[in-house]
Amino acid sequence: MSADLLTRRAALIGATALLAPLAPNILLGAPNPSGKTSLLKLDGNENPYGPSPAARQAILASVGEAPRYADETIASLTNQLAAREGVAPSQIVIGAGSGELLKMAGILAVTSLSGAEVVASRPTYEELPVFAQALGLKVQWVAPDTDHRHDLSAMRAAITPLTHLVYVCNPNNPTGTAVTRDALETFIRSVPVSCTIIVDEAYVDLADQSGVATVAALVNQVPNVVVLRTFSKLHGLAGLRIGYAIAPAELAQRLTALSLTWPNSTGLAAAIASFNDHSYLKATRAALTGDRAKVHATLDRMGLHRADAQGNFVFFDTGGPLKRFQDRMLAEGIKVGRHFDGYDTWARVTIGLHQEVDRFLHTLPRALSGN
């Protein structure tokens, strides 16, 4: 068999494997045709619907570009993002997921001010605060309010002359709650310009609470705010690691200088395709938020206290030790989220496919029995 034939055969096999999940009812969460029950992972806030059809095609096509550096693709994605956000391309910073950008912000703080401190809510997404601690920065943790939202007044009070970074994850992970855009803007404008505010909007595409919206427009008005987005959640590209920052030009330039790695060409191609696949994103959002509402309604009927989730997961009080609930769920073949400080009896559960959500809700009463 010739090398050319082998190459074409390999490409065909790869294309078949890549596109196989694209059945017409993918967004309906079609059952596993094998009938086998496998471990159901509802612990990582991953999007079970995965990349859009256009993104999957782009992933396959990107193989031919693997030997090339991705300069042109980075520029293309940057220009499209800038056009949508109403900023200059120089105000967009592409990163290997928003995680890299969070670490860049930590490095920015440690190189800008000796003895710099970080203010963050707890619990929250820990990548920036934990990395900051590893760099030797002190983190001032602030408890959430009684509705499990960021307590912006308490966070403002925690800011001192040594505070160089404030981290706001909105909607927050793991609580899923969000503060309104107006409240967040008031807070941002109250923070001294010597202190950079990082607003992590990884889940903002899934928010439907009245008044909750992006603060990205503020980067053209406020010199010390950076807004982070990711292609990991709604776009279903977590494994390909593409995120971006929207920032004032001077801050964007400083962040760019601290880039830790180089975005991969496959992730960039998939991100561009997904960015423009509006119908798929709309359908995915409707599926996730619809099942989130179903979980909320079930928890309410059961009388279980919960946070008002605005991401692709729910956070609720099981009424007993989390470890016991985790073990009982695992015995049923379902893995739920880990423990978070201050919430010893609370569980975080990711929204899966329709039938996965139904399986979780069917199992829930048994896992809670005796609590």
Protein model, in words:
The protein has helices at residues 3-19, 53-61, 71-85, 97-112, 127-134, 152-158, 181-190, 249-256, 265-275, 278-301, 322-331, 354-368, and strands at residues 40-42, 92-95, 117-121, 138-142, 163-169, 196-200, 225-230, 243-246, 313-317, 334-336, 346-350. The strands form 3 sheets. It has a 7-stranded mixed beta sheet, sandwiched between helices. It folds into 2 domains: 3-51 and 278-368, Aspartate Aminotransferase, domain 1 (Alpha-Beta Complex), CATH 3.90.1150; 57-275, Aspartate Aminotransferase, domain 2 (3-Layer(aba) Sandwich), CATH 3.40.640. The protein has 12 helices and 11 strands. It is globular and about 55 Å long. The relative contact order is 0.16. It is of the alpha/beta class. Helix 1 (3-19) runs antiparallel to helix 2 and helix 3 (71-85) runs parallel beside helix 9 (265-275). The protein starts with a helix and ends with a helix. Residues 1-17 and 19-36 have low confidence and may be disordered.
The gist of it:
With 371 residues, this protein is an alpha/beta fold.
Compute the gyration radius: what is it? 21 Å
Task: Classify the oligomer.
Answer: single chain
Give start-end ranges of low-pLDDT stretches. Answer: 1-17, 19-36
What would you say the CATH architecture of the largest domain is? 3-Layer(aba) Sandwich
Q: Estimate the strand proportion.
A: 5-15%
Mean pLDDT, rounded to whole units? 91
Within the largest sheet, what's the order of strands?
2-8-7-6-5-3-4
What is the tally of beta strands? 11
The chain-level structural class is alpha/beta
Tally of DSSP helical segments: 12
Please, how many domains?
A: 2
Approximate shape: globular
- What's the CATH class of the largest domain, please? Alpha Beta
Please give the largest β-sheet: 7 strands, mixed
What is the straight-line distance between the termini? 65 Å
CATH topology label of the largest domain: Aspartate Aminotransferase, domain 2
Range of helix content: 40-55%
Give the topology string: H per helix, E per strand: HEHHEHEHEHEHEEEHHHEHEEH
CATH superfamily heading of the largest domain: Type I PLP-dependent aspartate aminotransferase-like (Major domain)
